[in-house]
Structure formats: C-alpha cells, structure tokens
C-alpha cells in the first residue's frame, strides 16, 4: 500500500540554530533517513520560552504567533529540544486557541518521542562504541513524560533509553542520581549563577563517577550548560546531543 | 536581599553545601522507597488532592461544622483574622490561667505569627520542645526546614550550643549523648509547664477533633502534663471526615521522612477532666490566597516538606536563603501572596524542574504556580532595567525573522571575535564557572540554504 | 476582656465572610475506592516487620507467658504500672485522679492496644486503656499487649474499626519515641518512651 508520507516541519530552536548547527544537521539527516518529508520553514525564530520563564509571557505573544504561522501547515512539528516543545504544548495557552494554535500544540513533538511514538522505531541502524551517560532533561522527563521519574510510582520507561539501547556498541552507564536537574533553567543560569553552576558541577561529577565518556541528552540547553562546565574544568567528558549519536555510524 | 545573594553566601562553603545536599537527598530517597512500597500510592495522592480541593470549595461550612462539634466536646474555639489577633487570643488564655511557663510543640503557624517574641515580651517563658526547634531557638535562628528545623546545623555546632546553654560536656557531637541531655533538660520544662501550645496537622469537621503528629512525643508530654492546651491552626487544616485521616496519615510521614507513619498520631477530642482545651483558627492571609484561582491549590499543603527535600535548589541553598517561615518550593508560592515585593525573588529561585509537584502528596502544581507568579511579579513589581529591556527587545526581535537573523549574526560574531576579557568579566554571570559555546562559521540557517543550493 | 471578646467574634464573621466570597464553586468530595489498596499480604508478618522498622520489638506469646516475657525483656524495673489485667507485674497503682506529674519516675508501663495496623506497625491506644493519658509517653519503657486478630491492613480499615468509639483522647503509637534532628542521625528515645515492646497474643 502506498502510504502518504508524513510531512514534518523541522523546528530548530534559536540557540541550536546559532550555536549548535551540527545538532540541527544531525536531526535533519536522521529524520530524512527515517523516510519522512522534512521541511525546515525559513524565517522561524524561537518558541518564546526564554521570555515566558522570565515572567515576560505577555511580551512573547508575537513570538508564539510567529511560530504558529510558520508551522501551522505541517502534520507534525519536530524539534531536538524537549524544553522548547514543552513550552509550545504547555504555555501557548496564552494565545487565542484558534484551530491553527490547537493543531500546532497537539502536533509538536520532541525528536525522540516522535521517532518512538509516531514512527514506532527504536533501532535506527546507528553505531557508537562509547560509554554514554544520559542526562534526562526535566522538561522532557517531567513535562513531556518522555520517561518515568524516580519520584513517581510506576513501571520504568524511557524514550531515550529505548533508542540508545539499540545503538550498536553503545554502553549506557547507570548514574547515581538518575534524573536530577542540571541547573540550567534558562535565565536561572545567570540570575542564580552560584546554584546553577553548583548543580551543573554536581551533575557532571555524577557522570564522571559513573565512568561516562560521552554525556548526552535530548535537550541541548542543558548540554550547553554542562559542556560549559566540562570545558572550563577541562574534564574528560565529551558532550553530544542524542541526535548526533543516533545519526552516527562509527 | 534576593534569594540569589543569600544562596551565593551559602555556597561559599562548598563542603557544607555538599553535606546539606546529601543529608536531604538521603531523606528524599527514603521517601521514594517508602512511598513506592504502598499499593496505589499515586491514587492515594489523587485522593489527598481531591479531598483538599473539596475542602477549599466548602471551607466555611466545614469550619462551622468543626466549631460546633468541638464546642459540644467542651472545647473552646477562637477565630483570628491575622497574626496580631492570634497572638492576643493565645496571650489572653494564658493570662486567665496565670500561665508563665509554656511548652510548645512544632507549629509553623505560630512561627508565621511570631508568637514567641510576643509572649516573651510579656514575661512568659516559651520553650520549643521539638528537639530541632529547641536547637534553633537556643541559636536564636528561625527553622531552616519545616520538618527538620535544624538541618543546617552540624552535630558539632549542636554540641557547642548545648555546652553553652545546657551546660553539657564536650562530646565531639555525639548524637545519643546530646539527645539524652536534651531529654533531661526538656523533661524538666514539661514537668513545670503551666500550659501547652501545639500546632494542628488535621482538624476533623465531622468530629471536632484535632490530630497532632510527632516522632518525639513532645506534643503529648506537653499537653498531658499541663492544665491548658492551646491548639493553633490555619483555616486550611480542615478535613471533612475522620475517615480521611486514613488517607492523609498514610501520605504525611512517608512524604516527610520516609517513615510509614509518625511515632505518635495523637487525636485530641476532649480535654481531661479539670483541664481546658482551646483551638485558635487563623486566617492571616489564607482567605486572600483562596481568592487567587491560579494559586489557590497552594492551600492544599499538609506541611510534609517533601518539596524541600527533592528541590535541587533548596538542597544547595539552605532554608534560610528563602527568608520566609516556609522555605523551599512551597514557600516560594505561598510567600508572594503575603508580600509580593519582599518575596519577589523566590519564584525565580527554581529551574521549574517539576520534581516538587511530583513528590507533593496533595498534588499541588508547585512548578506551574512558580511560573505563574513570575508573570504576576513582572507585571506588578518594578524590574531591573537591564533585564526588562533585554526581554522586551527579545520579544520584538524574535517575532521578526529579519531582525532575528541580524541579531543572531552579530551575537555569533561577537562571541567568536570578542576578546576573552570582554566575555568573561564580572557582568557575565555565565562565564564565571562555565565556558561559552565555541562558535562555528555557519549557523543552521546558512548551512541549510547552502545545502539546498548545492543539492 | 469585653474588647477581646468582640474582636474574636469579628474574626469569626470576617473569616467566614471572606471564605464565602473567595471560595471556588463546590467541588465533589471524592469517594475512596479501597480496592485500589488491597494487597494479599500476611497481616501479622508485615505488622511485625514494620514494628522492627520503626524501632520496636515484637514477640508472639501465649497469654500465660506474658509476664515471663516482660520480665525477660525488662529485668530490672521497679516502678511498674500495669493498666491491664493480662499482667500482674504492676507495682504502682493509679486511677483517673492520679496527678500525671507523679508518673515522672515510672520505669515501665504495661497497657493494652485496641488495634494494630499492618502497613505501619501503629497501635491504637486510648485514654481508657492507659487510664492516665500521659502514661504511654512519660514511662521510660512501654509494653503494649495486642491481640493478633485485631491487626488490620491499612489506616482506612483502622478508622472504620474505631469509628464508634467514645472520642476523648486516642493515639496511634508506632515504635518508641525518636528524633533525627541532629544531623539526620536517628536516635531512639526522645521525649516519650525509650523503648517499645509489642506482645502479640
């Protein structure tokens, strides 16, 4: 049967676009491998989260409307950042709930969730022969429920682990604190600098203590913060977005 | 002074931060283990939340029912609109009994009302009898945690404090010895007390009784040895039926410390013959919080402290950094309702990680309320010019692709070519402990365009 | 005094008025589906292991050997109060009119529990069974005698059992008094009893 191909609008969050193009590239290549029609709508900017989290939700309405305008025609909106996707789903409630807004909110997916839940795939043919530590970003974990949380009763599950466990040669390391926040938190990283840096330092240490070689996650804002600490302290840890690993054929 | 400033101060001693974090993480782990051991735990939380929501929607009726049942048991019921009235009522009861020595078990409400200094100014001795509270009382500090009031103190610090105030021998911080000495010291206070003040964990509308939970037995030692018992409660402590204790007592201690239940769950319905029991019902801003639809559910709180133990910020900033009677995540959503200006930094003392909402036994959406308080604060409180102009500008730039493109380019240009000293200076809080990302030649936009051209 | 009374009255009306104005529309009181908490566990074994977790000691004994067991557990006690006819070890007599301060030096109290709760090792003790309310707290050591068939699965069941009581004072006791207020170090024996032994008969 000739199924209509899924049309995906690729959402590359602003900081990834500007600072981590390789993450955007890996995301795009990965989606293309998975047999979906991917379009990167030109002129996209940001989801508005930095403003909303800082209390300037009112001032972000223009950004949010612009986002909806850019993505309203796609079957799915997929981005490599749980935090931004969570913001779209959770906080676009400030907009008038037109059919377009509702469609965008309902069809926005974090990359891993899209691959596992919508495409129903876990083995993407990747290989990556390293010891990997998974940082479970809070907005993905507790917001989008990409996995079970250590504080909630119930069966264990994890979208990212499902994908990583299928990567050839990859050894997923177990952490002491499985899902503690890294301390990024957007502007929190700057306005609560002392605590933010300490939280990041503690997270990095947990990965080092657990013999991790490559620290990964589905949210590059957390990774940017953790990488900043790793680089400053010249620690033996490489930081990569999960899309880069899933797109690897090492 | 903001939370960030006080947190920075606390972080000057990193080994103490590590110690504080580990001590509370240990409690959080005990909580997980104990909670997950209960069949239907998440449903139990759902029930706790549902019952509390019903209580708030019918609070006046339940309070009247509670009062009438308590009165028919011979209990005297008083109502206080604010802290001042609360303190006056307690003081007048003590006056009538000519009570000069008072023992008090843990009550965050009396902390909130600053009852101790009020009574002390009238020449009344008030002794906090919970060991942790006694420690901070001797140190002349407020509690730093609602369940573990002295969690910020090391055993060596307690040792010194006891040497000074109780005349103990130096023990190098031997907990058994120190607890034993405190037992003797407080036993004497219990024996001589004229009146006992307690908090209230739950007030049961359909019986008129109150329940007080302790591990030490201090509430009972106080109440049963003195002539007058004064129980002080916020209006939101009401639960409809006694049977609902079967829900809340299952939730409370497991959430608080990981114990299956506190050692003592005491049900006070009637005073002993020849004695008096009083209940003081206090508003002090609660009905105002009830009016705020977005923040109303904060009144579900049963004061277990689980949100503090799980909060990665609380664990690394200490309870005093919040400068409010109730610290931590729950305090950060309660305090702005009391004094928005004074506590306006607290809703920002969070990464919105959401773990607080997940551990909350009555399912308060704490992190969502933190987000909402931020919006209120920006609207109603004067914001730092710099932050405000950055946000306003970002709001415009990020809604206009052309401006965004330009801004992105210049920001990347600056990051790439500006001398290090310009990036890593005092004004750049990011760069104090973290490197900035390395800038590549193209951004994703550029790469994508080139690829499409070439393809 | 009149002034205070007036204020108090105003407090009541002001609070109730304010609640009426500010409360949301009535939300239903949820029904409790107790089946969600059903577990097929050994009530007595779980109860025993929970008593151990909360720092108590538990022994299964015959009615005839209660006193022998108590003597073995607590060999050197002189000031003993027994409020139950299941033990004759009492050396100090009390009644409802006894001044609770006189119990300051009681070494051991032997009382009966009304029911036990498997999920947390708690035992329901009423003022009627302890005669003097302060007794189970002020005594240095505490023995509670409990009939095995009075152990229930969880707190909801327990409240059904005690629903029809004469409500004056009652307490769930789970283990000896304890504190972890000094650096999270658990120390048994805070203000209440230093030890608890539960005798299941």
Give the strand order of the largest sheet of chain B, numbering strands 1, 2, ... along the chain.
1-10-7-4-2-3
Helix fraction of chain B? 40-55%
Secondary structure tally: strands of chain B? 10
Total strands of chain C: the figure is 11
**Gap from first CA to last CA of chain B:** 57 Å
Number of domains of chain C: 1
**CATH arch. level architecture of the largest domain in chain B:** 3-Layer(aba) Sandwich
Summarize the structure.
Chain B has helices spanning 3-10, 14-36, 41-57, 59-72, 83-96, 108-112, 115-120, 131-138, 155-166, 175-192, 218-225, 245-256, 286-291, 306-310, 312-317, 328-338, 355-359, 366-380, 385-397, 401-417, 420-423, 444-454; strands at residues 76-80, 101-104, 125-128, 195-198, 202-204, 209-214, 228-234, 238-239, 264-268, 276-282. By secondary structure, chain B is of the alpha/beta class. Chain C has a single domain (40-200), classed as 3-Layer(aba) Sandwich (Rossmann fold).
Verbal overview:
- The complex is a heterotrimer of chains A (250), B (455) and C (201).
- Chain A is an alpha/beta fold.
- Chain A folds into two domains: 7-118; 131-246, Rossmann fold (3-Layer(aba) Sandwich).
- Helices cover 45% and strands 12% of the residues of chain A.
- Chain A has helices at 14-19, 21-33, 49-53, 61-71, 82-91, 99-107, 111-118, 138-143, 159-164, 188-191, 193-209, 220-232, 242-246, and strands spanning 7-10, 37-39, 76-79, 108-110, 131-135, 171-172, 214-217, 238-241.
- Chain A has a four-stranded parallel beta sheet with strand order 2-1-3-4, sandwiched between helices. Chain A has a four-stranded parallel beta sheet with strand order 6-5-7-8.
- In chain A, strand 7 (214-217), helix 12 (220-232) and strand 8 form a beta-alpha-beta unit.
- In chain A, helix 11 (193-209) crosses helix 12 (220-232).
- Chain A is globular.
- The mean pLDDT of chain A is 95.
- In chain B, a hairpin with a 4-residue loop joins strand 5 and strand 6.
- In chain B, helix 3 (41-57) crosses helix 12 and helix 16 packs parallel to helix 18 (366-380).
- Chain B is globular and about 95 Å long.
- The model of chain B has no long low-confidence stretch (mean pLDDT 94).
- Chain C has a single domain, classed as Rossmann fold.
- Chain C has a five-stranded parallel beta sheet, with helices on both faces. A four-stranded mixed beta sheet of chain C has the order 7-4-5-8.
- Chain C is globular and about 65 Å long.
- Mean pLDDT of chain C is 94; it is low at 1-7.
- Chains in contact: A-B, B-C.
- At the B-C interface, helix 2, helix 3, helix 4, strand 1 and helix 5 of B face helix 1, helix 6, strand 8 and strand 9 of C.
